[in-house]
Structure formats: structure tokens, C-alpha cells
């Protein structure tokens, strides 16, 4: 644990120094390839930093924030595109907007923030899941797939919500939500494009989808050119996930996770093609409840088939849950200690007050 904390400090100090360089030097260089070349050392460093950890959580979080988000945002920044353009007015904002899956909200609306009750319910469900892991030896691997998916979703939501609130207080500005109730998605397009991990599609659109669509429009109509763009975005997402899996497993890619995203890209493209046929939509329009069940069910079933097997075989899922249990136990112990100190201070203050009142009464009687 001590070594991991030391590595965490070293990694994020290196990241902050690197991003500070990106804020001051590259903007003075002409956009395009010259600016991209000036950022290459930082991009290379962010590919290596996740390897500094043995912890699954720290490797995953660092890889997601630096290797994926920061690198893609900096590449877009090289060409005057993406969420870092226009250049944020302060270094602190540039660092936060580069590393974290956040974006300043243009038209702040209080209803966009996750209600406290919903967040509390998610934390409670997460706690119940961790408790149920004590009985996982009695359950078949197939039955454990659903809890693993729920655990992954809830932990991502809790961590990102915590980071968002801390950054929001630190920067003093409203931020876009990171997700929009993905369990209510009525289609794959709705799930991947408008509900799940919203910062990722916001980056992939200008970085992959738009360039691929422009190239495709040279050889086909604009109506059909969107399909190669969709497939390219899903393929790139799959390749990045392969890299994330490598950081977690330290094993050579099996390409299962890439196939998962290729499959979803093809299905999303087919879904859009069907939606273009208005007669089909009128005849086969499903109710929102059925659409949600089919969409979420498809994601879970295909995820159990292609997304999680490598993580289960390599023991990453077991390490992931064990680390979560250790962190919860550590926090619980600290909370009990703090609660004990708080109660003790209240009791001591109470008796001190009573003692002073008693002494004051004695002095008054003798006076």
C-alpha cells in the first residue's frame, strides 16, 4: 500500500508538470503537425505511467484519465479542436479539463445534477453488492456476471461523481454530467451516444468519426458516409480498451474486447439504417420499456460473451472486487475512529462544562 501511494504521488506530479508544459509552450507553436510534435513526449509519457501501479484501480483510473482522455484531448488540441479549445483561462482549469472526464456547462441547469437521493441509493446498492461478494463461492460464474456489470457501473458512477463535485467546488463552475442514466437507453445509439460515459463520444466524434465521414463522403453519399464513421469510432474505442486491458492484465491482447466494440458498431450502424426506413419504424415501433430491456440486455449478454471473459480468466475481476472491499474496510475503520474521537470530544466537553458549573457554584456559595 505504501509503495502504491508513493507511485501515485510520483505519477500525478509528473502528469501535472507535463500538462503545465502543454499549457504554456505548445499554444505558442503553430497548430497542426508542429504542435503535435511538441506534445509527443507527453503523449508517450502518458502511455507509460499506468504501468507504475500494481493496483487494478489505480492502473485503470490513471489509464482512463491520462492514456485515454488526456492523450486524445491533447491530440485534438494540436489541431485547435476538442474540449481544450478555446484555451482555458487558467492553468488549474486546463489541468482539470485535460485529465478528467468533465466539461464546463454552457447553460447551467440544476436539474442536470444527480439528485442526492439517487446517489445515496446507488451507494447503498454498491454496499449491498460488496456484502454479497462474501457468498460468491456459492454462485456460478454465469450468475456473477450481472453483479459484476452493476458493480462496474456503480463504482464508475461514484468515483466520477466524487471527482466532478470536488473539481466543481475547486474551479467554481458548473460541469456537464458524465452519464445520463444508461440503464434507460432505448437503443444502442442512445446508449453509446447520449447516455454512457458522455466524454468519450464527445472526444471520438471530432477525433475519429468526423474525419472518417469526410473521407467517406468522397466516395459515397453523405447519407451513407456516416456508417464508416460509426464503425471507425467503435474500432478505435475497442483498440483503446485493449490497451486498458493490457494495463490491467499485463497479458497480450486476445482481441475479444475489440470484437465486442466491432459488434456494437455494426449493430448500431444497422439500427440507424433501419431507422431511416420510416415504414419499418411505423410497423415495428416498440414500447420504451421493451426497447430498454432489449438494449440493456444486449449490452449485458454481449459483454458477458466478449468483454469480461479475459478479465475473469486473468483474475482481474477478483482483484478488482477484493481491492474495493479493502478500501471500504479501510474507510469504515477510519470513520469509526473519527466517530469515536467526535463522541469522546462531545462527552469531554459536556463533563468539562458540568465541572466548571459545579466549581462556579461552590465559589459563589463560599463567596
The secondary-structure class comes to: mainly alpha
Ranges where pLDDT stays below 50 over 5 or more residues in a row are none
Number of helical segments with 4 or more residues: 14
Computed CA radius of gyration, to the nearest angstrom: 25 Å
Q: Tell me the number of strands.
A: 0
Beta-strand fraction estimate? under 5%
Number of domains: 4
Q: Please report the distance between the alpha carbons of the first and last residues.
A: 62 Å
Average predicted local confidence, pLDDT: 84
Q: Order of helices and strands, N to C?
A: HHHHHHHHHHHHHH
Main sheet characteristics: none
Instruction: Give the % helix.
Output: over 70%
The gross shape turns out to be: globular
Description of the molecule:
The chain has helices spanning 2-24, 33-48, 56-78, 91-99, 116-132, 141-171, 188-195, 199-216, 222-249, 256-276, 278-283, 288-307, 309-313, 316-366. The protein is mostly helical. It folds into four domains: 1-104; 112-175; 184-314, no CATH class; 330-367. The longest helix is centred in the last third of the chain and has 51 residues, at 316-366. The model has no long low-confidence stretch (mean pLDDT 84). It is a multi-pass membrane protein.
Amino acid at each position: 500500500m505504501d509503495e502504491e501511494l508513493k507511485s501515485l504521488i510520483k505519477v500525478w506530479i509528473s502528469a501535472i508538470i507535463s500538462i503545465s508544459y502543454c499549457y504554456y509552450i505548445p499554444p505558442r507553436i503553430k497548430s497542426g503537425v508542429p504542435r503535435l510534435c511538441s506534445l509527443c513526449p507527453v503523449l508517450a509519457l502518458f502511455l507509460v505511467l499506468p504501468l507504475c501501479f500494481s493496483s487494478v484501480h489505480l492502473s485503470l483510473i490513471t489509464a482512463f484519465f491520462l492514456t485515454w482522455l488526456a492523450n486524445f484531448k491533447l491530440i485534438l488540441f494540436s489541431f485547435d479542436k476538442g474540449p481544450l479549445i478555446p484555451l482555458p483561462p487558467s492553468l488549474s482549469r486546463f489541468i482539470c479539463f485535460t485529465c478528467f472526464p468533465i466539461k464546463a456547462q454552457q447553460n447551467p441547469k440544476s436539474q442536470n445534477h444527480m439528485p442526492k437521493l439517487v446517489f445515496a441509493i446507488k451507494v447503498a446498492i454498491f454496499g449491498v453488492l460488496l456484502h454479497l461478494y462474501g457468498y460468491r463461492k456459492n454462485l456460478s460464474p454465469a450468475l456473477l456476471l450481472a453483479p459484476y456489470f452493476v458493480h462496474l457501473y456503480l463504482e464508475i458512477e461514484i468515483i466520477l461523481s466524487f471527482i466532478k463535485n470536488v473539481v466543481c467546488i475547486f474551479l467554481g463552475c458548473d460541469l456537464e454530467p458524465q452519464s445520463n442514466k444508461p440503464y434507460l437507453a432505448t437503443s444502442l445509439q442512445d446508449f453509446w451516444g447520449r447516455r454512457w460515459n458522455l466524454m468519450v463520444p464527445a472526444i471520438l466524434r471530432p477525433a475519429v468519426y468526423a474525419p472518417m465521414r469526410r473521407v467517406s463522403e468522397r466516395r459515397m453519399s453523405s447519407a451513407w458516409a456516416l456508417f464508416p464513421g460509426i464503425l471507425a469510432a467503435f474500432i478505435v474505442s475497442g483498440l483503446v480498451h485493449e490497451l486498458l486491458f493490457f494495463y490491467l492484465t499485463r497479458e497480450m491482447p486476445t482481441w475479444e474486447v475489440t470484437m465486442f466494440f466491432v459488434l456494437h458498431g455494426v449493430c448500431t450502424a444497422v439500427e440507424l439504417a433501419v431507422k431511416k426506413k420510416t415504414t419499418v419504424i411505423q410497423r415495428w415501433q416498440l414500447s420504451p420499456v421493451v426497447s430498454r430491456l432489449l438494449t440493456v440486455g444486449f449490452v449485458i449478454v454481449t459483454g458477458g460473451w466478449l468483454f469480461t471473459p479475459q478479465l475473469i480468466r486473468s483474475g482481474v475481476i477478483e482483484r478488482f472486487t477484493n481491492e474495493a472491499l479493502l478500501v471500504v474496510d479501510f474507510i469504515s475503520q477510519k470513520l469509526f475512529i473519527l466517530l469515536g474521537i467526535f463522541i469522546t470530544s462531545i462527552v469531554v466537553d459536556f463533563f468539562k462544562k458540568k465541572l466548571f458549573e459545579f466549581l462556579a457554584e461552590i465559589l459563589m456559595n463560599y463567596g
